[in-house]
Amino acid sequence: MSEEPSTKPGSTLGDREREGVIELLGVIAYGAISGFTRLAADSELSKDLGLKTALAGMAVDEFAKHELLVTHIRELGGDPMEAMTPFVPAFDSFHARTAPRGLLEGLVKAYIGDGIANDFFREISAFVDDESRAIIAQAAGDGRRTEVIVDAVRRQIRADRHLAGPLALWGRRLVGEALSQGQLVAGERDALAELILGTSHSRPGAGLEEMGAIMQRLTDAHQQRMARLGLSA
Amino acid sequence: MSEEPSTKPGSTLGDREREGVIELLGVIAYGAISGFTRLAADSELSKDLGLKTALAGMAVDEFAKHELLVTHIRELGGDPMEAMTPFVPAFDSFHARTAPRGLLEGLVKAYIGDGIANDFFREISAFVDDESRAIIAQAAGDGRRTEVIVDAVRRQIRADRHLAGPLALWGRRLVGEALSQGQLVAGERDALAELILGTSHSRPGAGLEEMGAIMQRLTDAHQQRMARLGLSA
């Protein structure tokens, strides 16, 4: 963890580190637009007006995160569109491979997929400068608004116990796809890969051992989320 | 037009008028959620990251309008879900009958459809109390962010002149469907219909002659929007 005091955004970063941080912010910023789109589509599918507006509100939160990240990319001297573009195929491919067949699968995907993505971004933010870490922590949210989703999913499973098995499979597929796309994303850009895995520079990065510990924490938190939905992980 | 001074929201309204105003706010509030959904879907279809985020931003604006209207419905003592529910079928039917076959049709629909809807709401707001009229004026926006849409449509038509004919037909179909659904909406609830057409009470409403003038103004503004897109109305 870096503890340096600083006066302006990113002033503690070397050029190569700054490049990696901007790439990381680009990933998260495109992920937020992507999350906006998914939640808006879930909102469209909902017949319940209360759930519909709650999901639309969550989509709006994702867009606010996007704007926060885009602003910080500019503060670091980066171009937001350039920073996001390399990661478009990975996200679009993830979403194409995990297109929900209905609202219920969409809700599980929003909760499980966004949950593991936010955890991942928070873990990786340990390796960036203080300001960027604070921005990422804010963008990764605390998931309070997800209560609406958890309630809706649990209610539907209570009403029809046969939903639990297929939804548990769905949750496992989501996390498998998320982890494999996550590896692609991490390896997509050199500076980002160096940021995460560490180089000979002052900022250490994760290293392979720490990477294993991160994966374990991601998996544990995922299992807790599955349990909250009433699904076996 | 009402000129009464007032101390709290809706204090100048009789019970029946208040009912009509809440119904009108319910129409516009559901229209805003509906607009949010459409613009988010257009954002999803856009391959251009700049246009994609601009459309997402416009969707977010629609949600902000929705929240503004819902707050005012509550201030008037209404239940927002109850106020919106009667109008769900008319909006959903309009959108089902005018499902865009691609981004370009979606953009024309957003500009032409939202344009005529906002004009209509502003016209009708002449018959409500001052506070509600101010809220409706704010929610009906001034369309500044639509520049992005106008530019994108014009650019595509310039690149392929053959698009202009089918898009002009599409614009005419949209306005036809919007007007016929608008009549259904206006007639859906008694208090709302009284608000618009006037009763023997102090607040006069439009009357049939004024209604004709309103339709003429809506049509004129529609033709100006078509012209701005480079389409014949």
Task: Sum this structure up briefly.
The structure is a homodimer of 233-residue chains. Chain A has 233 residues and is an all-alpha fold. Chain A has helices at residues 15-45, 49-75, 80-84, 88-97, 103-124, 130-139, 147-159, 164-188, 190-197, 207-229.
What topology does this entry show?
Two copies of one chain form a homodimer.
Chain A: H1 15-45, H2 49-75, H3 80-84, H4 88-97, H5 103-124, H6 130-139, H7 147-159, H8 164-188, H9 190-197, H10 207-229
How much of the sequence lies in strands of chain A comes to under 5%
Q: Uncertain runs of chain A with pLDDT below 50, 5 residues or more? A: 1-6
Task: Tell me the structural class of chain A.
Answer: mainly alpha
State the end-to-end distance of chain A. 32 Å
CATH superfamily placement of chain A: Ferritin, core subunit, four-helix bundle
Helix-strand pattern of chain A = HHHHHHHHHH
Please tell me the CATH architecture of chain A by its name: Up-down Bundle
Largest interface: which pair? Answer: A-B, 23 and 23 residues
Highest CATH level, the class of chain A: Mainly Alpha
**How many domain units of chain A?**
1
What level of helicity do the residues of chain A show?
Answer: over 70%
Q: Report mean pLDDT of chain A, rounded to a whole number.
A: 88
